[in-house]
Structures are given as structure tokens and as C-alpha cells.
Design brief:
Structural class: alpha/beta
CATH topology of the largest domain: Rossmann fold
CATH architecture of the largest domain: 3-Layer(aba) Sandwich
CATH class of the largest domain: Alpha Beta
Pfam families: CCG
Organism: Flavobacterium cutihirudinis
Protein name: L-lactate dehydrogenase complex protein LldE
GO molecular function, one term: oxidoreductase activity
Radius of gyration: 18 Å
Distance between the termini: 21 Å
Helix content: 40-55%
Length: 246
């Protein structure tokens, strides 16, 4: 299978190691991965702010870059959900629809498409898992406490394959961290309070790291941790799954 790696703009600019870890992990699992060099923002910030019409160029560029691949994989639930729900190309609607059906968040791809059963990875630390809203409620990467359904978690399923790791769940396992994209700009005080609440529950569990599938959420939590002088660090799940993987 031929896979295209989609790296969101904030990962490209601020957390390139997440993109590198994603690439290395996929290649070590036997995937043929390409990185389209002309890819840019998926258009989510404009759309979330009510300017969907301004994201048309992003849509056209996305289709140009990612046409012809079997799958498109990204280490970001929010960006994947945006593409799945909003990608349009009036000149090439069939290809746009095919892309929407074949773009996957990393943990979703590993569990649902590659069907990974074991990982030769090691991460000997106490880790708290943050469930990002887009991944959980949009992509259904894990169950939601407000619905009476069997519990499941694709990220947790993968993390349990990592040697030495000790997962510790916060009391409110699917609470929003408060980032919410542009929400953290327009409602700064509310966003920060929500983030502090998330951080406290993880700190109460005496974790060494907080992990998750969205760097945007981890960036928000990391800013709060740093300002509070906390010893807790943040790390993307791709970096854990790729750690010491041979």
C-alpha cells in the first residue's frame, strides 16, 4: 500500500519530531510512505472561525497533493476530522470524496487498517492519556462516558503494547482540555481554566508524561505545565510508539 504522510502546519513549524516519529513508525511497520512537499494547512482554522470560503485554496491544494494514494495518514485527529467532513473540490469531486474516505488519524490507521497486534517499543514511565475531543467524539477513537456503550480506546490499545509503560487515567477521562483551536484565543480565561483542571487530574496521578494524539491539545497543556513549574512533560503518542522500536 502506498501511503501519504499529512503533517499539520503546527507540527511542521513547532513539533517536527512528531512528524519524524510518525514517518519512522510507519516505515518500520512496513509501509511505503511518501511526503508531498507542496502540502500546506488543511484550512481548519479559517473554517472554525466562520470563513469557510477562504479555505477553498487549501482544499484544492490538498486534493492536488494527496490524489492517487491508497491512504493518507496524519498524527492529528482534529485535522483529519476536518478533511473528512469538509474537503471539497468542485472540479474533481470524485477524487475529493475518495480522499475523505481514505484519510486516517495515526492510531486509527494502526488499529483499523494495519491491525497491529504487537509493538517492539519501550517507554518506562508513568503516563496519563489525554483524549482529544475531535478524535474521541468525531473520529470515535475511544468511547464516551455520556453514552452507554462498551468501553474502548484505540490509543490505549496501542499504548498497552509498549513495554515498561504505566498508564494512569484521570478521573474525568474524556474531559476537554480547553484548547479548541481558535476557542483558546476568543475565550482565553475559560480555556486556561479548563486546561488547569486537566493538568491537576494528571498531576494528582503522579504521572511523568501526558500523551495524546493531537499536538495542539498537548501544546496547550504544556504551556500550562511550564507556567506552573510542573515536572510533568507532554509527548505525542507517535513518539512513544516509535520509542526503541526496531
Amino acid at each position: 500500500m502506498k501511503i501519504a504522510l499529512f503533517i499539520p502546519c503546527y507540527i511542521d513549524q513547532f513539533y517536527p519530531n512528531v512528524g519524524i516519529a510518525t514517518l519512522q513508525l510507519l516505515e518500520k511497520l512496513g509501509c511505503d510512505v511518501a511526503f508531498p512537499l507542496e502540502q500546506t494547512c488543511c484550512g481548519q482554522p479559517m473554517a472554525n472561525s466562520g470563513f469557510t470560503s477562504l479555505s477553498k485554496g487549501c482544499d484544492l491544494n490538498f486534493v492536488r497533493n494527496f490524489s492517487g494514494f491508497d491512504y493518507i495518514v496524519a498524527p492529528s485527529g482534529s485535522c483529519v476530522l476536518h478533511v473528512k467532513e469538509h474537503l471539497k473540490d468542485d472540479e474533481n469531486p470524485i477524487e475529493a470524496a475518495r480522499i475523505r474516505n481514505n484519510v486516517y488519524e495515526l492510531t486509527e490507521f494502526l488499529t483499523d487498517i494495519l491491525k497491529i497486534k504487537s509493538l517492539n517499543a519501550n517507554f518506562p514511565y508513568k503516563v496519563g492519556l489525554h483524549n482529544s475531543c475531535h478524535g474521541q467524539r468525531g473520529l470515535h477513537l475511544s468511547s464516551m462516558t455520556e453514552r452507554m456503550l462498551p468501553e474502548f480506546s484505540k490509543p490505549e490499545q496501542l499504548l498497552n503494547m509498549v513495554g515498561g509503560i504505566e498508564l494512569r487515567k484521570p478521573k474525568r477521562n474524556d474531559e476537554c482540555c480547553g484548547f479548541g483551536g481558535t476557542f483558546c484565543v476568543f475565550e482565553e480565561a475559560v480555556s486556561v481554566k479548563m486546561g488547569k483542571d486537566r493538568v491537576k487530574e494528571h498531576e494528582d496521578n503522579d504521572v511523568d508524561y501526558i500523551t495524546g494524539g493531537d499536538t495542539s491539545c498537548l501544546m496547550h497543556l504544556n504551556g500550562i505545565l511550564r507556567r506552573q513549574g510542573s515536572k510533568v512533560k507532554t509527548i505525542h503518542i507517535a513518539e512513544i510508539l516509535n520509542n526503541s522500536l526496531q
